[in-house]
Amino acid sequence: MSARANGEGSVYLRQDGRWSAAAYVLRPDGGRVRRQVYGRTRAEASQKLTVLLSKTAAGIPLAGEAWTVRSYADHWLETVARARLRPATWTNYSYAVRVHIGPSLGSVRLRSLTPARVRRFLAERTEAGLAANSVRIIHATLRTMLAEAVRDELVERNVASIVRGPRIDHEEVRPWSLDEAATFLAAAREHRLSALFAVGVAVGLRRGELLALVWDDVDLDGGILRVRRTVQRLRGQGLVFGPPKSIRSRRSIPLPESSRAALLSYRERQEVERLTAGDSWQESGLVFTTSVGTVVEPRNLSRIFEHLVERSGVRRIRFHDLRHTCASLLLAQGVSPRVVMDVLGHSQLSITMDLYSHVMPSALRDAADAMDRALSGSR
Q: Which of 144, 152, 192, 344 has its CA at a distance of 20 to 30 angstroms from the CA of residue 55?
């Protein structure tokens, strides 16, 4: 322990290998509270302690003591998260703060929040009947918020990251077979949005990515489609265009000839619709639109899809399962999982493997046979 005078604090080595420094600092109410800071080295801990003591000497209260979970959450949402998060993510986090975190944890001092309190809070949400994925979003909101509080040096550790989130049981992927996909596309051929479904099956775009496509991102001569944004309906904001789900979701995809031909035909049809609509047409530059040029409501697209599925007589699946169908068909044709990952815009190869490993038995057998051939040759 360092030789410091009374009131100057202390610096010492913890059992976990970190250095800790402690001193009494000012609270906003004029009182004093013992505050600890940590560092990887003695010098780092001492430097942080010096900053604390200098603020106390200048009569500056410790800002961290004034924050409650609610006040910091509001500050974080508006000054940090809004500028850095995707609109959909910000909306989910804002909802989690307003409906769950604020009412339950809002009055707790930020520095008094403990792993046990967070664990109990999440358990209460589950016991109240909230879906595991909803609890996961609440947990992610709290964890991301507290990570920023650590960076602001308002708390020493992220107590939410210590707590395990709920286990998510992923729904079984239910893609169509090649025959089912072909039957559906044949039944949808006369619908005005038939090209959308053809592209959805062929290149596996998400619903929001399909509806946000603009003609400037489609090179029909070169046969390339570029995914640059997505659209979705957000609470209290209506339809919002924003960046794709992740950096890897921004991608350029070669179009199969069948999809290129479908888009060429659709563009001609859209031009007829534009002339027919006259002054009612609202130019948006979008590829797939309503009959007057506006963005298609995502929920309406899902309803159209369900109607066409019923009319085609094939097994019912969700719209999102068109994306799974694309991946499954590619893998069944022997396309590398890494290439499938790039087509789908997954952020990690493990996501692709986790979702579709069950449809790759032939590929795994080919790998085993290849190893046999290699070892036999060496012998």
A: 144
Over the stretch 190-241, which tens digit does the pLDDT of each residue have? 999 999 999 999 999 999 999 999 999 999 999 999 999 999 888 778 898 9
Specify burial of residue 201 (Cβ count, 10 A radius: 0-12, 13-18, 19+): buried
Strands (E), 149-260: 218-219, 224-227, 230-234, 238-242, 251-254
What is the total count of domains within the chain?
A: 3
How many Cα atoms sit within 13 Å of 9 on the Cβ side?
25
75 in the same domain as 140: yes
Residue 241 covered by a domain: yes
Report percent pLDDT > 70 for the chain. 87
Confidence of residue 3 (pLDDT cuts 50, 70, 90): very low
Query: Which segments of the chain are extended strands (E)?
Result: 10-13, 19-26, 32-39, 218-219, 224-227, 230-234, 238-242, 251-254
Residue 9's contacts (CB-CB under 8 Å, 6 or more residues apart) are 21, 22, 23, 24, 49, 52, 53
| One domain, residues 207 and 289 | yes
In a domain, 372, yes or no: no
Q: What does the pLDDT read at residue 330?
A: 87
Between 148 and 355, the higher pLDDT residue: 148
